Amino acid sequence: MPCLDLSTNVNLDGVDTSSILSEAISTVASIMGKPEAYVMIVLKGSVPIAFGGTEQPAAYGELVSIGGLNPDTNKKLSAAIATILVKELSVPKSRFFLKFYDTKGSNMGWNGSTL
Predict the structure, then answer these.
(1) 101 has which bridge partners?
(2) Helix 71-89 vs helix 17-32: angle between axes, to the nearest 10 degrees?
(3) pLDDT value at 115 more than 90
(4) Residues with active-site annotation
(5) pLDDT(97) > 90
(6) CA distance 101 to 45
(7) Listing from the earlier edge strand, what are the strands of the sheet with 3-8?
(8) Can you give the residue range of the structural domain that contains 72?
(9) Minimal CA–CA distance to 68: which of 112, 111, 35?
(10) What is the longest distance spanned by two Cα atoms in the chain?
(11) How is residue 54 annotated by DSSP?
């Protein structure tokens, strides 16, 4: 159950967030080899973020998954999500960090229980 939580200082008013969410779900599922039905994307805009001393467009993300993460996969995910942010929100790749968490099912709650 990969969950990608993205925060950006870009205002999302007037942005087609459904398109971004759909593209991100498809991308994460494809790269990780997980069914889209198990992928969650959280997108928050207008979050106060300063990076490198400026408040120019920037983003921060965390991807939590039960397995499926490794150095090669993480590199592909980082590149793919950065590309989406550049294309859809004009966030430069150099102003985006993505943190990866590989966790156990007992550390993830779903459907009133743990996995």
Answers:
(1) 64
(2) 160
(3) no
(4) 2
(5) yes
(6) 22
(7) 40-44, 3-8, 59-65, 96-102
(8) 3-114
(9) 35
(10) 43
(11) B
Give the end-to-end CA distance of the chain in Å, rounded to a whole number.
9
Q: How many domains does the chain divide into? A: 1
- Retrieve residue 16's tokens: 């087609």
Please state, in angstroms and rounded to a whole number, the distance separating the CA atoms of residues 44 and 50.
15
Average pLDDT of the chain is 96
**Residue owning tokens 């400026």:** 54
3-class DSSP state of 21: helix
Q: Are 94 and 86 in contact (CB under 8 A)?
A: no
Contacts with 114 (C-beta within 8 Å, 6 or more apart), sequence order: 105, 106, 107, 108
Query: Tokens standing for 32?
Result: 């990780």
Nearest to 100 by CA among 2, 29, 7, 20: 2
Instruction: Indicate which CATH number applies to the domain containing 54.
Output: 3.30.429.10
Category of 17 on φ-ψ map: left (φ > 0), alpha (ψ -120 to 50) or beta: alpha
Kindly report the pTM of this predicted structure. 0.93
